[in-house]
């Protein structure tokens, strides 16, 4: 069975999706829809359509939506009404209300809908999830993430929370298999744009795990780090290099009666795992392709999960605004 697939939007991510689709086994890359005059006429020897109706008439099995977030609801709706499965880049929609509308529409049509939270497919986080499930860390106490770097000129319609922090919201819930039950945040607006460009957030998950997320567009170096701490030690994942390191708790022995009940930890063995490093975007596409073939969402980020991420992101943004200096009342 060969699926016919296309892309909507030819920005940075759209070009990467087109590259993957052009070489993906079991898939025929049909082309791209992008009405911008600056786009080329062909990508990977496939046409760039300027007319949406013409694009949707290409007998498409599924489409990757890589246009700006503000267009996701409109494009996703057109695809669902045309009976076409869709992988929609994160965030799945501009608001949680729109995200739920897409979820409900795809469910009603019996279509596969996925969200492009690519960090789930990073080898370091995949390996971390597997080892946590195997009991390597025991109970999970805390997840901390740092996602920092310079401002990306391609982003204009959302702030750093929906663009970047959504990665951390999704991966934290996924790697721990818990849901957020509360979140608080502080935000700044330093670059003269209407959206926040820096956030420091803390949260609590459904099994009591606490989280912290440092995310910004104002740091002159790029960092993508996740630290998962549990009763037996810590896993440190660097998703830029796809490295995963395990810091095991050492053993404390004391014959001093007054401190023998102390339950702290010391440094133990350190293990850097050897991982198979496959491109996360390719793994994401393979999972979505297989879900379409099998008619069941398996190994993908569902529209329901994507909607929950947007909801938590909205809570972060709202709490950040609540605590801006101008909003604080003495």
Automatic annotation (TrEMBL):
Chain ranges of the Gfo/Idh/MocA-like oxidoreductase N-terminal domain: 4-117
Keyword vocabulary terms for this entry: NAD
Database matches in InterPro entries: Gfo/Idh/MocA-like_OxRdtase_N, Gfo/Idh/MocA_Oxidoreductases, GFO_IDH_MocA-like_dom, NAD(P)-bd_dom_sf
Keyword NAD attached: yes
GFO/IDH/MocA-like oxidoreductase domain: residues covered: 126-236
Keyword Transcription regulation: no
Protein name: Gfo/Idh/MocA family oxidoreductase
Organism from which the protein derives: Microbacterium aurugineum
């Amino acid at each position: 069975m060969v699926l016919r697939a296309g892309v909507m939007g030819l920005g940075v991510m759209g070009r990467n999706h087109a590259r993957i689709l052009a070489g993906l086994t079991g898939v025929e890359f049909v082309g791209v829809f992008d009405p911008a005059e600056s786009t080329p006429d062909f990508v990977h020897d496939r046409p760039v359509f300027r007319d949406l109706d013409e694009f949707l008439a290409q007998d498409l099995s599924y489409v990757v939506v890589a246009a700006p977030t503000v267009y996701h609801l409109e494009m996703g709706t057109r695809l669902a009404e045309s009976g076409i499965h869709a992988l929609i880049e994160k965030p799945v929609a501009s608001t949680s209300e729109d995200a739920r509308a897409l979820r409900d529409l795809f469910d009603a049509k019996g279509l596969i809908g996925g969200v492009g939270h690519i960090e789930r497919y990073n080898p370091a986080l995949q390996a971390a999830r597997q080892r946590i499930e195997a009991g390597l860390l025991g109970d999970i106490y805390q997840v901390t993430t740092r996602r920092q770097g310079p401002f990306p000129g391609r982003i204009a319609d959302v702030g750093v929370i929906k663009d970047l922090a959504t990665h951390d919201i999704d991966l934290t819930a996924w790697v721990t298999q818990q849901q957020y039950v509360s979140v608080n945040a502080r935000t700044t607006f330093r670059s003269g744009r209407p959206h926040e460009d820096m956030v420091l957030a803390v949260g609590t998950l459904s099994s009591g795990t606490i989280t912290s997320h440092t995310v910004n567009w104002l740091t002159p170096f790029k960092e993508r780090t996740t630290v998962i701490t549990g009763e037996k030690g810590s896993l440190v994942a660097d998703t830029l290099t796809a490295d995963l390191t395990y810091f095991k708790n050492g053993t404390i022995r004391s014959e001093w009666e007054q401190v023998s009940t102390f339950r702290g930890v010391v440094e133990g063995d350190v293990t850097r795992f050897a991982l198979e490093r496959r491109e996360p975007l390719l793994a994401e596409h393979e999972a979505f392709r297989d879900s379409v073939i099998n008619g069941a969402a398996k190994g993908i980020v569902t529209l329901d999960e994507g909607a929950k991420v947007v909801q938590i992101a909205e809570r972060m943004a709202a709490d950040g605004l609540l605590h801006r200096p101008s909003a604080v009342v003495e």
